User: What shape does this take?
Amino acid sequence: MPNEKRPPFAENVTADDVAIAAGVSRWTVNRAFRKDASISPKSLQKVMVAAERLGYLPDLRAASLASDRSNLVALLIDDFANPHKLVMMERLTRILRREGWDVLLVNTLDRDDAGHALLNASQRRVDAVILIGIQFDDDVLETALQARRFRKLIVFARSSENPNTISIAVDDVGAMTELARYVHQRGYRRPLFLAGPQSHSAHLLRKETFLEYWGKHFSFQPESVTVPAYDPALAATIAMETLSRRGPSDLPDVIVCENDALAMGATDVIRHKLGLEIPKDIAITGFDDVPQADNPNYRLTTYRQPLTEMVEYLVKVLADPEERDLNRLFTGRLIPRHSA
Amino acid sequence: MPNEKRPPFAENVTADDVAIAAGVSRWTVNRAFRKDASISPKSLQKVMVAAERLGYLPDLRAASLASDRSNLVALLIDDFANPHKLVMMERLTRILRREGWDVLLVNTLDRDDAGHALLNASQRRVDAVILIGIQFDDDVLETALQARRFRKLIVFARSSENPNTISIAVDDVGAMTELARYVHQRGYRRPLFLAGPQSHSAHLLRKETFLEYWGKHFSFQPESVTVPAYDPALAATIAMETLSRRGPSDLPDVIVCENDALAMGATDVIRHKLGLEIPKDIAITGFDDVPQADNPNYRLTTYRQPLTEMVEYLVKVLADPEERDLNRLFTGRLIPRHSA
DNA sequence: ATTTTTCTTGCTCGCGCGAGCAAATGTGGA
DNA sequence: TCCACATTTGCTCGCGCGAGCAAGAAAAAT
Assistant: This one.
């Protein structure tokens, strides 16, 4: 009776129930739901009909317990003010799900909390942990690796030399060199670097690369200012302080930002608070190419990370049980727009 | 030897190991990790010392299997172009984690996929499913409730009359009435409504409310235009088409948007493509009060949902096993800014 | 028709933990 | 000291499934 109504919160139907209904053994039922298992088309059919009728689906907790593979990855993210995080989450969850991975999303509040979040994930016995954020410096990683078992620790969108850690990131040195050269060739000569949160061990190489490039070509190091979070509003505050401290004649002619979130904040300040024009009075560059970068308010010259390619690589790495220590860099593309 | 080095991917340490090390039974070890369990301070201490030394943490899969509570909720989200989703995810994951819930994030691509996502979640035996998105119309919900077991089905930020479904949302009728009255009192007389994706059963009441208000007061129904996704870029395209189809004298004096994502797209078009001023030539209102609404490029008059309050309510509902059918509406606050 | 090979099925055992009860231990009062 | 009672501990059994093997069935080869 396919139309038989079941109560909305029915008792658990298990493989045994289906087995009885289909006239096979429990193991045949479970085999029917595994793609690798050997099962005759006939009994597969019988099982599926019975399962459909009873509303049976295998319990992934039990499967995971028995097989020691959870098909679960934890995604630890910290920095929700940064619009790029939304893009990364979308891409990651979409592609991971396509490949059969479920995603445990963990919002890590601060550096201390990152440790707890890692423990949390380990209790779910996830097959891998993907870290996206600024809090995961070498200490946190080291602790994670020392004390707990993770099959894989993947640092995404940030490179890490840590052993036993997989990192998948854009080549910051190459990218920022390209950006610096662009800024240089466009004739800008008084740059200011707007950097994101810096920790001794977990930061991007963009600032160093830019400053070195400039030092090499002009024998002076531009000023750089640090914003303690990738938050456009916070970047606006810091940029305002910095720029208003300088006299009008002492303003930079370009602000090179560690990413788009900072660049957007800086843009807002320059246009709306200082009443200056971009790029005529001050130019701006960003990094990431978030969707808003193309917005008419910003038209940001920026650097696009090959996100899809990076995520596709990530799922490949996930599938390979041997792979657990590598540092893969990707090359993106400079996107020249109006802002510089 | 606390400093003894373990290999990074050690063998699984289980409660039995800790039991031997602590000189107690396995059950005492597990009790030590449950807050409700009765255990003497002495053996708790012994267990914790041994567990710490061995790096033991209970396996939540097994606990869940045995206790039939997973402490897991699935979060089904579809519409990643909408910046409000980032805010909701942040708030939800933060507060849920604080209350001991882990979150399975599922990116549902389209309406068909929503069904698969639901099945997926049911296989992990989540304690609740939280739906945030436009794809979860009554059909999808009905199917979910009919065919599969979910302890709770929670529709968030959208109200649902569906039985056996908990919905937590802002009172769209009240909110939009307030907005309409505001627009009315500010003297606008030629409104255009910019609506989001409409389905017969799963949409917001904002459009109907606004149109009815206007019909009641002015005996004509303003035009309304539908954008098929809450995507600023798409909204910009549609707004551009609509506005350029009209003659300059026939332009609306205010565009009332179903949410901020649409309002931002419309704003961009009006200012940058049409070269008009906001609010002088055309005013704009939004809904949600996303962080960008306060940005100098938008200064959007909008309606703020009491998101934290709503999420706090959600975790309360989660904790109560009896609660599984209610429709709770919250009242937010009109945020007048520059755009209208 | 018989044997060999291949495929399919059933089964034992274990994954790590919790519910719930029984035994053991502890506490206090008469 | 002894007993009634409360607290703590250990234990049996089961949650639902998978690995891996052995038995059975089917297909292929002789």
Summary: Chain B touches chain A through 62 residues (CB under 8 Å). The two ends of chain B are 68 Å apart (CA to CA). Residues 24-28, 31, 38-40, 43, 62, 64-68 of chain B lie near DNA strand D (CB under 10 Å from a C1').
